[in-house]
Amino acid sequence: MTRTELQELYNAYLGAELAVLKGKSIMLNGQSMTMESLEEIRKGRREIEDRLQRLNNPRRLFTRARLS
């Protein structure tokens, strides 16, 4: 997925979380989500956050040695 697609998905999860916290029932990925689904929504949001973090801060394979 591209960074833009991941950001859109993150925004959808965030919107779903806020809606459910306000007591609304929403549809996300074809599933009806209610307060009982809050942990599932948060899990998905955290997964997308992690993926965005990895895109924004890729690990380096090598680091420079500091010589004193």
From TrEMBL:
Domain of life of the native organism: Bacteria
Name of the protein this chain belongs to: Primosomal replication protein PriB/PriC domain protein
Species annotation: Salmonella enterica (Salmonella choleraesuis)
